[in-house]
Amino acid sequence: RCKALVSSLSKDLFAEQALLSAGACTDLVSCVRMEDGQTRLLCELLPLNQARVSLLARNAPGSSLLCAPRGEGFYAPALAEAVRLAELGASVLDPTACTTVLFFSDGRPSDKPCDIPGAGAWVCARCTWRNAADELQCVSCASSRLDEYGGDHERWQRTRLLPHLAAQLEELCALLDYDKRRLQWHSIGLGKEEEFVVLRSMTEALPRDIGHFNCCTLDARSLARGVSSVSSSLTQSRLASSTTKYRRPLRAVFLNQFEGRFTRYPR
User: Fold this and answer.
1) 3-state class (DSSP) for residue 33
2) 53-112, pLDDT tens digit by residue?
3) Which of 127, 143, 187, 254 is the least buried, fewest Cβ under 10 Å from its Cβ?
4) Is the model's pTM score more than 0.85?
5) CA 209 to chain CA centroid, nearest Å
6) Are 28 and 54 in contact (CB under 8 A)?
């Protein structure tokens, strides 16, 4: 599955965008991988051609997409890193540039209550013992922290995780002025659609013209179609940003008696 994704990205995304950029260094790429419950930064604000070489290198397993990820996928730290990179990019990119986030996931998020910043200490619903923030079970009676949600992890995701993710997305939108010409978000689920309830809800928390959700089944044709769709959206964003440059104000021209429409004026 990892090799199929890398192959599709190389053929249907990197190659096409590199051709459109024509060797320019204005397109910057950052890549974050969810790994072992944390995030691994593979590259940060590299020009497109350099990022392409780095991410597809076979002799650099530490920074290459060819190395299969390990462990579970945690949405919250990955999204926090995306917000940080967008803030960093906004300080160096042209004001009319478009930041496009591609959020790939192969299943449900594995975030736990102790992984959410600001969760703080919690009181056991069974014995009222006050536990530290990083405890998943009560120190006194060993009951689960999820007991206050009926032991239902999906219910916790809906009532606690999703609002936290939505707040992070709100921060990202505010950073780029809620402007669809400056921000585009693509959520790509790799698997069955019922596994991506949280991912779809994240996308729906964004303005309709900014957030996009796409679910690809685990076959090469569907994956290529999904990545090609994202690449087409990137091309449209490129064209839109190139036509939103600041325009020079027009100067007033007063015609004399012997002047006409085709009189040349000094600049």
Assistant:
1) strand
2) 888 876 655 567 777 666 678 899 999 999 999 999 888 888 888 899 999 998 888 887
3) 254
4) no
5) 15
6) no
